[in-house]
Design a protein that fits this description.
Belongs to the short-chain dehydrogenases/reductases (SDR) family. The protein has about 260 residues and is of the alpha/beta class. It is about 45% helix and about 15% strand. Helix 1 crosses helix 7, helix 2 runs parallel beside helix 3 and helix 3 packs parallel to helix 4.
């Protein structure tokens, strides 16, 4: 049995591809032979070899239009669209700390970037009779932290519901739509958070990680995900090996979500 993923020559657009999970997805798709274009607010000074970049702010409609046009101009269209970009800049303090501007910022980053890019690039996939769209959601839409992630979690819940509905519409037309729902991932930002918590608590980095895991209710695996682990799952789902998978959400969280 061959485990060739069949990604050689496939055209992929990955959002948020310069850090964390996005960077790991970009590298893994490239290493499996895909032609990859990725987004960044600014192009890195030392870009990855064999990767195309487009500078744009995809929290805006114009930024998404710029990216979609770059995908058409530089790749001739896309076979794989991986919507990784996301995150939160919302302050702590619960619901009362979230004004309309914060809510719209969270929605534009975590929901509307994917909606706008899908809307621009899906017609080409449908016309060709094939393609894959992957939305990176989060276990936060099942386990929100009310002190700090209400808006982010709500936006990711909306992304998950949108993704499911889209899958029902376009899977019969040959385009698979799949969700990946990570738990805590040890990205650059997560490392910085753990280090800050460790300093505040007078402990080391492992102690800082333990603080975060406790706040999440524990991670049975005993550690956060690594970006490469999430990227490996996404790459498999984007491949022909997953040709019968559509409309589903795949949780990768080390057992954090306590229900089946």
């Amino acid at each position: 049995m061959s485990f060739d993923l069949g990604l050689a020559g496939r055209r992929a657009l990955v959002t948020g591809g310069t850090k964390g999970v996005g960077a790991a997805v970009v590298a893994t798709l490239r290493d499996n032979g895909a032609h990859v274009l990725t987004t960044a607010r600014t192009v890195p000074e030392t870009p990855e070899g064999g990767v195309l970049y487009v500078a744009a702010d995809i929290t805006t409609a114009q930024g998404c239009a710029t990216v979609a046009q770059a995908a058409l101009d530089r790749l001739g269209g896309v076979d794989i669209l991986v919507n990784v970009v996301g995150g939160s800049t919302a302050p702590g303090g619960g619901f009362a700390a979230l004004d309309d501007d914060i809510w719209m910022r969270e929605l534009n980053l975590n929901l509307m970037a994917a909606v706008r890019l899908d809307r621009a690039l899906l017609p080409g996939m449908i016309a060709r009779g094939g393609g894959v769209i992957i939305h990176v959601t989060s276990i936060q839409h099942e386990l929100p932290l009310p002190e700090s992630t209400t808006a982010y979690a709500a936006a990711k819940a909306a992304l998950s519901t949108y993704s499911k509905s889209l899958s029902k519409e376009v899977t019969p037309k040959g385009v698979r739509v799949v969700r990946v729902s990570p738990g805590w991932v040890e990205t650059e930002a997560a490392v910085a958070l753990a280090e800050r918590l460790a300093r505040d608590a007078g402990t080391d980095y492992e102690g800082g990680k333990a603080i975060i895991m406790k706040a999440l209710g524990g991670i049975p695996l005993g550690r956060p995900n690594k970006p490469q682990e999430v990227a490996d799952l996404i790459t498999f789902l984007a491949s022909s090996r997953a040709a019968a998978i559509s409309g589903t959400e795949h949780v990768i969280d080390g057992g954090t979500v306590p229900t089946a």
